Amino acid sequence: MNISYNWLKDLVEINMPAAELAQKLTDAGLAVEGVHEAGDDFVFDIDLTSNRGDCLSHRGVARETAVITGTDLKPAETLGDQPAATDQRLVTIDDPDLCHRFTARVIRNVRIGPSPEWLVKRLEAVGERSINNVADITNYVMHELGQPMHSFDFNKLKENRIVVRRARAGEKIKTLDEVERSLDETMLAICDAEKPVAVGGVMGGFDSGITEATTDVLLEVAYFKRESIRQTSRLLKLSTEASHRFERGVDIENLVRASNRATRLICELAGGTAGEFVDVYPTEYRRIEIESKDIQSAVKRLTGLDVRYEEISRILTALGIDSKIGPEGRRFTVPTWRHDLAIETDLVEEIARIVGYDRIGEELPPAVGAGEYQPNELRKFHLRQSMADLGFDEALSYSFIDTRHDETFALVPGLLHEHLDEKFVTLKDSIIEGAVRMRPSLLPGLLDAVRTNFNYQNRNLRLFELGKVFSASEKENELPDERELFALVMTGGETLEQKAMTGREFDFFDAKGALENAIHATNAPALEYAAADVRHLRKGQAAEIRLDGRTVGTLGRLSDEVAQGYKFRQPVFVAEIDLETILAHREQTAVYRPLPVYPSVERDVSLLVKRTVSFEAIKKSIGGLGFELLKKVEFVDVYEGKGVPDDERSLTLRLVYRSDERTLVEAEVEPVHTAILRNLEEIFDAKQRF
Questions:
Q1: Fold (CATH) for 2-69
Q2: pTM for the complete prediction?
Q3: Consecutive 10-residue runs of the chain (690 residues): their mean pLDDT?
Q4: Which CATH fold topology does 601-689 show?
Q5: How many whole angstroms separate alpha carbon 631 and alpha carbon 598?
Q6: Cβ contacts of residue 223 below 8 Å, gap of 6+?
Q7: What are φ and ψ of residue 150, in 5° steps?
Q8: What is the CATH superfamily name and number for domain 377-583?
């Protein structure tokens, strides 16, 4: 943002060199990256953050200068009483949700020509080229007051009227840069009685533009919804000085003043005569009010600064923030040009930056437990360590994703409030194109990481992530609900150190084992698994994860439909679990058991069972028999294929027998082993396979 030093001096009294003012502005949060000479002027190159749209003008920076230096801001010029419109149909707003206010003024008998030298120099100083007197005046007022505006050739508008509406599918317009652009229903168009004559808040149309033959001008000064302008600008790949300001927020109460200022200059420099004026204001702006019990104490508490109340009052008043006594302290009213102030902390920040960040001292926060692990932090540390020991890498993905994922993944139970009309959290200002949804799942980020690795020919992956997911709150005006999840993804095969070839391909049980290992590291109760139909997982290789009978997550192989969407050509196994719910359980007590003194007897047995029979069911059944000599039942392998009926599979188990008092002999093991096999045959119709 270029700001002219001489221009500032027209708006506020300045008694310091340009370099000194640049330093003071930087100290107050308006970073001046450079100062360069432009004839007899100095130009500040100010790097503004996106929340300070109020400083995208000379008047905005002049207001900051007045607060910093303790001087008064000079009053803005006015035109006087507004003439009533002779034709109320001059402006019609069909979509007030996108256009909150629209003013139009007709200026007649205008003579289009070159601008005077002083105006040309002012514009050139801030990087604008001169076009003609009317166009230059609209640009000048935009840089002065921060309000974009547009001038139409009034006689080129069909029926001499303006209609503000959403564009219709297939409508096209040639913009001022002489490029034909296609519009859609999401975009706001400024139209005459027949067709679009401008893209609202972005750029005017070529066919309705000012030319040397123009005699009557319609001056548009409007306020558009910020999100709509941002979306339109990105869809059209067209960023302008106007859209840059509308996206960051202009002052809805500044429209008439800006129109007055431009009209006065057009009448003076182009010989025009002010005519009809229309102000259509269907969506009235409600100013934000901030309650503070004691703003002076809040400044002390949050910054450590001792600032007298008189100085606090001077700063806030000079910034346009009015105040009055409220029921519980003081009520501050935010000015219409500040869209970034909403809570008491924002006011404290305004005071701190004017008083001086350099005056904030260094002090350790008072805390008895400073430096200690937060609740469950140590358990999460052990979880991370266990995953690293298994060869996993931790991923960190964005907290915002595309809306196309909304119906792709089955979410952890209880995350969304299904009765709400809008269950998800949507960003108003997305950082990445299209990523407007706060993630309700960790899987989209992990799968994006898998796709990126595949693009770099890395096809053997083990990734995990711990992170927050979000859903809309049931309470009005509340922050979104948050929940911490744990997710993992495995694909490809196992690779060993110093060995290029993979040993074997990962399968469902590798993912299940990794998940169990991670949860075991947190000392949480053992998880249970049950076959289930899960939206994003392949049928037959999908399971619900349960804790105390409650479903807390899912595990399985990515479905063919989802894998095809990511263009994956190899199996990908994923798991996602509600870590917050798991860590809410008390840690299991660690019980010491001495190492066995006597050797164990191990028997591997392969059983032919129906596909619907799970290892977990068999293990529970064996455990229910209560044989003291049986110490462990382990899964070994599963086989499906040649020699096995289509509706069956071969499940191999390992039964471990041991006595704590003596070395077992075959005669003691065999009856127990036979009884177990007989029980499995009766309950599951299991047949031993040799």
A1: Phenylalanyl-tRNA Synthetase; Chain B, domain 1 (3.30.56)
A2: 0.63
A3: 92 92 93 90 91 93 94 73 59 94 95 95 92 95 96 95 94 94 94 94 94 95 94 93 94 93 94 92 90 93 92 94 86 94 94 92 69 82 95 94 90 88 84 85 96 92 96 84 96 83 87 94 91 92 92 95 93 96 88 89 94 89 93 91 90 94 93 94 90
A4: Alpha-Beta Plaits (3.30.70)
A5: 13
A6: 99, 100, 101, 102, 250, 252, 255
A7: -140, 145
A8: Bira Bifunctional Protein; Domain 2 (3.30.930.10)
